[in-house]
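Quick note —
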Amino acid sequence: MDTSMDDRVWLAALRATGTAELPHDIATTEARLAAASGAGRQLVPVDLPRGPGWAMTWQDDVAPELESAGSPGTPSANPVIVLAACLRACWTDSAAPLYPGGETTIEHVTQVVSALGVVQARRAVNRLLWWGYLTEDSGRGSVRLGPRVALWSEADIAYLRAEYDLLPRDRTE
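Predicted structure written out below.
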């Protein structure tokens, strides 16, 4: 089978699943990096529960605008508020690196956002899990920041650091 076709199939699978484990050999790694670059994408290293991996994002000079065809669109308020609460709960020191951060319980996040009027917080958590912004340890009922957070730019993270005190948190903290 044509190697370039294998790489295109692998990129499509990565786009569908959000993350992939690192290949075991340098030739495959180089081929996949080149395939991603040829598609206007870049591969970013992320920590996966099973070890190191990759997530895919747009190259800076080809990233789509939010309103363009094929863009992710604008999320509704509930997932944004829930993500903000998860950021604050998992990122307890704004001077520390954002990703991978710590973990928090879904129950804690639900309590924080319910005080802000968010209903169906678990539905928002499920969406964030599906989109890759959170990962879940279902055996413990906890979540942590997902690999999509690792793709955020330094400018975005600097903005979050500057606005850290505005992120929703338990008022008893």
